[in-house]
Amino acid sequence: MRRVHQPCADVFVRNRVDLAVPGAEEKIAGRLRDTGLVTVDGLASRTAVFAFATRIMNLVPHRDSDSDGLTTIRDTRRHAHRAGFAGFGNGPLDPHTERSGTPNPPRLMLLVCGQPAETGGECLLTDGQAVHSDLFTGDREAGAALAKPRTAFFGAGDGHATQVFTVHDDLRVSVRLRFDGLARWNPIVQPYLPRLRAAAGRHQVRLNLTPGQGYLLDNERWLHARRAFTGDRLFWRALGQPLFPMLQGFAPATPTSLGTPMLEEAG
Q: Are 231 and 74 in contact (CB under 8 A)?
């Protein structure tokens, strides 16, 4: 059964943590360990975004980040057709995890709205736990293929050989994904990519963020995407490692469906 996209207000309210209350960091850590998703508001400036990000993570600088470690996400009108740079255009983005072509992607991603688009530009989120459960219960053959080690290569020439689902020694699972021109696939998994894409769409929820609103997610669990837009949409993004302990990945919703795991050391 296709899951109906939940109204964005419901998604935002249900996952919101008030940053002004005492113990907000502990609540955020607990939510991230439990569901992998937190929504926030009141971050009306880049300075506020940076201050909040450094309360919860060690920022990880990378190719696209600015000198303070944050990344300005807007349509530059010059990057849209370059593989790996689609986020700096105004087109749609497929479901993906951040920095999938690196050996150790950042665990957390924070995305905050500075200015919404004139039309479109909604954020689309997919729980990887739901996709994993969907494939292993409704299409076990697809799920098993997508968990086989080194069946995907994400990134350019210096990218990373991996798989969509990594099963750890404790049977927790991490997801890593991209569908753009920097994704190359082993023929073993090629037939299952339409099913993976369909599952990601079935479990997608929508967030139409206003200035100062944002979301914080576990990059080993949640996929994120974007609708095409018009206008001067502006967002700020932070990537980093949590300042509190988190187990690898997520607990699968249907652990008995995994059978004999095909393990790859995390990283």
A: no
> Would 155 be classed as within a structural domain?
no
How much is the pLDDT for 1?
37
Confidence label for 76 from pLDDT (cuts 50, 70 and 90): confident
Residues whose CB is less than 8 angstroms from the CB of residue 244 and which lie 6 or more positions away in sequence, other chains included: 25, 29, 56
Alpha-carbon distance of 102 to 125, in angstroms, equals 22
Mapping DSSP onto H, E and C, the string for 108-172 reads EEEEEEEECCCEECCEEEEEHHHHHHHHHHHCHHHHHHHCCCCCEEECCCCCEEECCEEECCCCC
- The whole-chain average pLDDT of the chain stands at 90
Tell me the CA distances in angstroms from 209 to 16, 80, 250, one per residue in order.
13, 22, 26
Q: Alpha-carbon distance 122 to 229, whole Å? A: 8
State whether the Cα torsion 50-93-61-108 is positive or negative: positive
pTM of the model: 0.90
Residues β-bridged to residue 223: 126
Q: What is the pLDDT of residues 164-210, one digit of tens each?
A: 999 999 999 999 999 999 999 999 999 999 999 999 999 999 999 99
- In this structure, is residue 101 part of a structural domain? yes
Task: Tell me if 92 is assigned to some domain.
Answer: yes
DSSP tag of 90: S
Give every CB contact of residue 26 below 8 A, 6+ residues apart in sequence. none
3-state secondary structure of 110: strand
At 76, which CATH number? Answer: 3.60.130.10
